[in-house]
Design the sequence.
């Protein structure tokens, strides 16, 4: 079983309405590839680009929710929506699970009801920012580097109440520590080791150890620039970041968050969904079977409330 904590298929389908989730080859994740691999659960992010006018961002988010329901969930009778560990554990052998997430709180502005609406529609994990700032917190691309706002603290309180995973990927450094102090369910859906690759989107050893101390999920991502610092990367680079987090004590934290369909670059040997099974076999040549099980799915499951 494989659980992938992040992809941007919904954004691609929103941006390219002529594409189809079922079979469009332009998508790195599509239904045809999904049915042929061992990915049991895929997390689908709502990502509204920052060039959408502020008054239209929530509408764009709702459009992506509609795409999730109409194209992903209705694409095949065996694709089921999942929101909890129990939902995943109850999936039958021939069923796949789709989880809805939000990447960046900018579409909600300062309106907690908009956020609650997305939660009621099924969002289970929320990244507080993309790289920019918003009403909740600053992102890693904002030079000011501020942490949680007062509204942001209300948002975290809501997540704690509704058992929503609080995703620290893309957050400012101060925002990260604010979340670690206040969130009951922190994760990093798609971030790598800053020690191995000094990209601002990656997490330093202190941050990784803080997540590990809570056995919080850390999804290693397949973005070449986050793996090597340039456009070229291969599967060994992915495994190096996995091993780095493992050696920091992250055996029960590290997992996978591909970011398929979210970037232009790709990892050699992990160009799209069709390569996932071969990659898992490669993992087994470097790591123990027990750890590969934790890495591919168990660590994510353990972070989900029942």
Sequence:
């Amino acid at each position: 079983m494989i659980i992938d904590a992040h992809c941007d298929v919904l954004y691609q389908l929103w941006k390219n309405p002529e594409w189809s989730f079922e079979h469009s080859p332009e998508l790195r994740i599509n239904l045809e590839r999904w049915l042929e691999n061992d990915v049991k659960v895929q997390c689908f992010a709502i990502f509204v680009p920052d060039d959408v006018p502020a008054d239209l961002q929530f509408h764009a988010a709702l459009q992506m929710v509609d795409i999730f329901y109409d194209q992903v969930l209705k694409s095949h009778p065996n694709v089921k929506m999942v929101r909890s560990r129990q939902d995943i554990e109850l999936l039958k052998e021939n069923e796949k699970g789709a989880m809805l997430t939000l990447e960046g709180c900018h579409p909600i502005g300062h309106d907690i009801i908009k956020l609650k609406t997305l939660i009621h529609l099924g969002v289970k994990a929320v990244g507080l920012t993309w790289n920019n700032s918003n009403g909740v917190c600053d992102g890693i691309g904002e030079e000011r580097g501020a942490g949680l706002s007062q509204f942001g603290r209300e948002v975290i309180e809501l997540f704690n109440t509704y058992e929503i995973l609080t995703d620290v990927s893309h957050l400012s450094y101060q925002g990260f520590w604010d979340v670690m102090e206040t969130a009951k369910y922190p994760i990093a859906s798609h971030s790598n080791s800053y020690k191995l690759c000094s990209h601002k989107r990656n997490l330093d050893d202190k941050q990784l150890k803080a997540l590990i101390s809570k056995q919080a999920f850390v999804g290693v991502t397949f973005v070449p620039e986050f793996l090597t610092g340039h456009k070229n990367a291969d599967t060994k680079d992915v495994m190096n970041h996995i091993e780095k987090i493992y050696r920091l004590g992250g055996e029960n934290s590290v997992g996978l968050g591909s970011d398929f369909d979210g970037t232009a670059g790709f990892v050699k040997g992990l160009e799209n969904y069709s390569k996932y099974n071969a990659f898992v076999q490669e993992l087994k040549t470097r790591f123990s079977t027990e750890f590969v099980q934790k890495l591919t799915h168990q660590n994510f499951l353990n972070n989900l409330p029942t």
Summary: The chain has a mean pLDDT of 97. Strands lie at 2-4, 39-46, 79-81, 96-103, 123-127, 165-167, 186-187, 218-220, 254-256. DSSP finds twelve helices and nine strands in the chain. The two ends are 19 Å apart (CA to CA).
